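Data deposition worksheet. Section B asks for the primary sequence of the deposited chain exactly as it was used as input, without tags or linkers unless they were present during the calculation. Section C holds the resulting structure in token form. Section D is free text for depositor observations; keep each observation to a single sentence. Incomplete worksheets are returned to the depositor.
Section A, Depositor: J.P.
Section B:
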Amino acid sequence: MREVVRNGLRALFTEVKAVESWLRTEVADAYDELRADLSRAINSDDIRQRIAAQHSRSTNDHPS
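Section C:
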């Protein structure tokens, strides 16, 4: 049982390190690029519309 917990914790710590690395590199770079050129920003209403449209397409493709 201890080995299972130990392996689970190792896997969790590995995942946390990967997420932290992604945040420090790709997300931080994207944030800096956006701050440098705010015209690239997408407003929240547009994002909501895009998500709703994607959801609608997705649920229409797979009706329950």
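Section D:
DSSP finds two helices and no strands in the chain.
Residues 2-36 form the longest helix (35 residues).
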